[in-house]
Amino acid sequence: QVQLVESGGGLVQPGGSLRLSCVVSGRTFTFSNHAMGWFRQAPGNEREFVATIDRSGFSTDYPDSVKGRFTISRDNAKNTVYLQMNSLKSEDTAVYYCAAADSAWAGPGTYNYDFWGQGAQVTVSS
């Protein structure tokens, strides 16, 4: 059983920042062997890719919508992946999901990820 628990969501004004964290646990799950990703889903929309990071933390990828504003990172000693979100906009409002892939690198499709967290609400509003 693999568990992913997100934290750090909340309400922030436009232009503000938030940092999401996701702690991964599992008796047979070696965090440092797995790529990690962040996705988001707004009401009425499909789940969309936000960021991915390879197992070592050296390679990352983002869609144009968040590139330059969001940064994904990981601490393999703490089994934790982070998403630093700066210059937030109202259109960033969504439930943010952490995901783990059963591979060292994973692309942007949701089908590349095998384990998912329950999500954290991020609301950007004045």
| Beta fraction | 35-45%
How many DSSP H or I helices? 0
What percent of residues adopt helix (DSSP H or I)?
A: under 10%
Tell me, rounded to a whole number, the average pLDDT: 97
Based on CA atoms alone, the radius of gyration comes out at 14 Å
Distance between the termini: 40 Å
Shape: globular
The secondary-structure element order is: EEEEEEEEEEE
Poorly predicted parts: none
Largest sheet: 7 strands, mixed
Alpha-beta classification: mainly beta
Question: Total strand count, please?
Answer: 11
Task: Please provide a written account of the structure.
- By secondary structure, this protein is mostly beta strands.
- It contains no helices and eleven strands.
- Strands 2, 4, 5, 6, 9, 10 and 11 form a seven-stranded mixed β-sheet that branches.
- Strand 5 (48-53) and strand 6 form a beta hairpin.
- The chain is globular and about 45 Å long.
- It starts with a strand and ends with a strand.
- The model has no long low-confidence stretch (mean pLDDT 97).
Short précis:
By secondary structure, the protein is mainly β. 0% of the residues lie in helices and 44% in strands. Strand 5 (48-53) and strand 6 form a beta hairpin.
Write the layout of secondary structure elements.
Layout lengths: L2 E5 L2 E3 L5 E8 L10 E6 L6 E6 L6 E2 L8 E6 L4 E6 L8 E7 L14 E2 L3 E5 L2
Parallel strand pairs: 2-11
Antiparallel strand pairs: 1-3, 3-8, 4-5, 4-9, 5-6, 7-8, 9-10, 9-11
List keywords for this structure.
mainly beta, seven-stranded mixed β-sheet, globular
